[in-house]
Amino acid sequence: MKLIQFFFFFVSLSCWSQIKSGKIEYGLHISTFEGLEKTTVMKAAYVKAMKNAPFLNFELLFNVNESSFSLTEGLGLDDDGVDYAKIFSSYKGIVYQDDVYTYSEINGDPGNYLVKKDKKIEWNLDNETKEINGFVCYKATAEKKVVNSVGIFRFPIVAWYCPKIPLSYGPNGYGGLPGLILELQVRNILFGVKTINLQPDKKIVVPKRKAYKVVSEQEFEDLLINK
Description:
Blueprint: H1 2-17, E1 21-30, H2 41-52, E2 56-63, E3 67-74, H3 79-88, E4 95-97, E5 101-106, E6 113-118, E7 124-132, E8 135-147, E9 152-162, E10 180-186, E11 189-198, E12 213-216, H4 217-226
Parallel strand pairs: 6-12
Antiparallel strand pairs: 1-2, 1-11, 2-3, 3-4, 4-5, 5-6, 7-8, 8-9, 9-10, 10-11
């Protein structure tokens, strides 16, 4: 009996190790945060963003070499609300990943660029688990540092990654974990998986990066300042 159980375990493990491509659909949830009630101009925009966030769908296409993350649907309650939801989610355009870097596609003023940054994040791995769409996921945490004219702010990042999908991609340019991220929360912005389509025998064709000029984050910030 134990031999039979071991056989099926080995076959199952072999099947998961053969996952080489797939497609993940994510939904977006924006929640309130402490201090929002004290704001005036931003509060109205943020409330619209929260109401329209559930209407946005995102798609992660991946294979063993690369991935792309893009908005696929955005018909909400009103156009302004959809735009606010995208802004507050930090989604600016298609995000491409390879083993080392992420490339965020920027269109419009001050031009068309691919903003390149190191994919590495200082993750803290936790033994805490939860099941997402039938997959056991593990918790990882990190911190996002934001520097602007007001000061320096630090926000928590919580990711739930799945070791059975052994590719280090995730939504909106996050990755670098020993498994694909099925749920990601950056402060009060949550990308949660809706559908999982794994195609072990069929390679997903990830869209190629556009032939835009590649710049670093600092170079792009300088472009915005000097435009």
